[in-house]
Amino acid sequence: MYSTPTGPDAAPTAPAASKGRGRLVAAAAAGAAAELAALGLIASAAWLITRAAQQPELAALSVAIVAVRAFATTRGLFRYGERLAGHDVALRAQAATRERLYESLAPSGPLGHRGADLLSRMVDDTDAVQDLLVRCLLPAIAGAVTAAAAVTLAAFLLPAAALLLLAGLAVAGVALPAGTNAAARRWSARLAPARAELAARVADLVHGAADLAAYGAGERALAASARADERLAALERRRSLANAAALAAGTLVQGLTVAAIVLTASRAGLGQVPTAVLALTALVSFEPVLPLAAAGERLAEVTAALRRLREIRATPPAVTEPATPAAPPEGPLTVQVEDLVVRHTADRAPALDGVSLTLTPGRRVAVVGPSGAGKSTLLAALMRVTDFSSGSIALNGVDVRDLSPDDVRARITGLTQDPYVFRASLRDNLRLAGPEAGEEELAAAVRRARLDAFVERTGWDVTLGEDGRTVSGGQLQRLALARALLRDPEVLLLDEPAESLDETTADALMADLLDVTHGRTTVLVTHRLRGLEDVDEIVVLAEGRVAQRGRHEELVSVPGYYRDLWESEALTSGRH
Amino acid sequence: MHRDLLRLARTEQAVRVHLFACVAAAVLAGLLVLAQAELLSGVLSGALTTAALIPLALVVAARALFGLVQGAAAGRTATALKSVLRHRLLARLGGLGPARLTARRSGELVTLAGRGLDALDPYVTGYLPAVAVAGVVPVAVLVRLFAADLGTAVIVLLTLPLIPVFGALVGWRTKEVTDRQWRALSQLGGHFLDVVRGLPTLRAFGRARYQATVIRQVADAHRSATMRTLRVAFLSSLVLELVASLSLALVAVPVGLRLLSGSLDLRVALLVLLLAPEAYLPLRAMGTKFHAAMEGVAAADDAFAVLSGTEAGAVTAAARSVVPPGVPEIRLEGVTVRYPGREDAALADVSLVIAPGERVALAGESGAGKSTLLHLLLGFVTPSEGRVLVGGVDLAGVDPDLWRARLAFVPQRPHLFAGTVAANIALGSAASPEEVRAAAVAARAGEFVDALPEGYATVIGERGADLSAGQRQRLALARAFCRPEAEVLLLDEPTARLDGRSEAAIVEATRTLAEGRTAIIVAHRPAMLDLADRVVRVEGGRIVSDRAVTRVPAALAGE
After folding, report:
1. A45 to B273: CB separation less than 8 angstroms, yes or no
2. Please, which domain of life does this record's source organism belong to (chain A) (predicted)?
3. What ipTM was estimated for this complex?
């Protein structure tokens, strides 16, 4: 799924859109027809019975008899058709929503490092469009059509009754849903913080179980979660009371409307047959209308979800793309970084503050520094996933801001922070970095990343990721490294390649890496200094600035961060 | 009805009372429909005057009132049930022992004890009352129909069972197919999330745009698979609708013909017309609430599975022994630890003596059993064989809370709780603000805490200020410093994931903390080994070497 070579992109076309509308109309029509059949069934049955009581000729009833049977048969079929068509439309709409969302995220999306939970919620939000159609829009259309039909029928029989019915249906189908909608919005604003509070307490109890047990603080934490639970429960109880009141009001409106219609008909001296038809039609016409109160409540959640999606789509991308990208540079690549300033947020100190760097073909640069010094930000700027506020990055003299970010990443990429394992085979997980790669190239990349033992154990076709074989932190890191080596870009970026490996493996891996990157343009972010004797330049970053730079032997000869780090590493690794 | 839930509902008074009120109100509201039909048919047939509209309105009002009571009681039942389950689940965590929670399981538990239990709402508020109504109202309607008109009653009696029978038949025929398809669906549905999560990686390798095509293909496959499932799944509701509406036709047409012949009274005919659908309605309502309710059943199953799991670290209630005061000797005698579901023992026949005040480093590959050894001393796991003696007393007979009060533990990945920095440091103790500050300074945390926007009152944790791994580790060390009375120090790789400078700070702080205490330190990186008197290497659950450290005088260390 992740590695198939690029195929032609089929953009959605205008006929597709009108076809979608056609499907929606068909679903709505089927839904309305099902409700109308139900209405017709009761109206014709009422007419049949009351008319029969006047004992006319049998022929006078035959139409009604046929109608009763026809309505009875078609109602179920229409309903079945509506449910299928409705779900089909909804799934199509959901797919389109996801596609639009993805297209706004894909190029250089605004989601820098969102938490996994936020991402899942965003994906859940795309389900909302399904509910919008199936649970809100289609029922509302069916309800409105039924109401219109019932009111029209009543108008023929007794205009005053039609007005009463219209009023009752308007209260049940418009006022109550509007009320539940407004209430749901108010409630969700009050429930959200209580939910978040409870979730935090629960997460504390679960994730902090060891800490709590060791420090004897479990009881207190449990009591805190019980308090949070009670606060949430109190709100939920009040909300369910409010919802129940709306439903009860619907029942009341239905019954009183029917009673009022019967009374009006009797005062107007309407005959028995039309009165019965009127009363039973009115009674049944409420059936598709009453559930709209629940739909109104659901609509509040749906609109909130859709609003969140719109906000995500409206967020400006992290990197602005040029309207007409310049042609990508040809030949061996020289990267010139000058006075680069990157600011993640306006109110905080810049993540990078005036960094310069030159990468001529074959040059290897190591970047070291404490966490938060801006090392990964530098790589992100080189890869064009983060924009910079001043300074410049040029590839063979071409400003990267004039190039398409995709073209930049085709040349400058590698092992990034937080690599991801897809729910796909090991082979596909690797080949996304090199869709055209043959078996031998795959095997070589795996060997150089020291992942070969793992591959031998599991085979190439094992499914990784969620629901698949779990991958340890070290294996993930090596998989990501194998991807980077398979990709073999012109400028190879390596962000902490030995992260989460044990000492022995880390040492061996770093030695290998320094070996295979000989003669390749490389930027290596690391906190392990062993082996850096060989690289062409070491840049020490501190708080976004270059604190020191030079070759290893120069840096260890002067006091500073690098020498401190070197000495503490010598101490900790027993390299006396 | 879910068996465990039912038992819970019976034993918990709050749940029982509200559930009873909810079900009773739902059934009464359902039965009032009979009275409503009675009055309406009376008025429409002319048998009753329009004055009967007043009792009709009252009946409607009563139905609304019962509906209100039902909804309110349902809400109370649901919240009470969720609170009880949530509390039991969370209380259960202590009993399960923290060592038993893998990262994945704990994520699931957080979801289950949080929003997961909300899946019970439709079950409790919708499905349960619907089941009760379906059990009572159709019977009552049938009884009334038998009294009113035998022919109709027979038709309804014969067609009514068709609904459950057809439902079961369709369900039985399609269950396997739909189960298989739902599984495939959830996988396809997960694809989009997978792609979105992996976007940075896709972007890095120029695959991001291409995936848009794949997303469309997967969505199309997802949709056609779903529609195949739904075509079958909706069949059962088609049957329900057809039976219900055809029965109405079956009732209405003969009734009309009999009216024509004068053998039936109009009032009875109208009553029959109004009542007959009410016999089917509760069954249909139950059916539509079934699917949403099944998610609740799944959540309940998950919860009860956790609740019925075996207790780890269960202490024999009898014979509570007390560890004598003073820094105790720790002695492991032939200890084997097995985790359920794993073949190899985490620790195999380990014997080890640690003298009071000794500083022991535990070294070895990850997964060798070092953390298990610490968890054993903390009482998070119990030996399957052998025993652990502290101060000469078998740990199995000691109250774990009393014993843990004499320990200070710094886990590999300390958890910071939603709360202030001060509360996080003082965890479980009643330390004064001065003591908290002193502990933070001793743990080399004072400087960065002072630099936080609100110092010690800064709220941290999941939604709080960002702290680096090194800062978190130092706060966890400060916790240990906040327990001056602790006699045994247990540290699980306190410097993993730290850069050299943070590591040096932690090593220095640990050196101070270990003064006058027994210290057992799991060390992945060699920095910590420098602190130890003795290095014990563990491999595959066994001790492979145990040697004293010959300390190099500090003056020579730089050579």
Report:
1. yes
2. Bacteria
3. 0.83
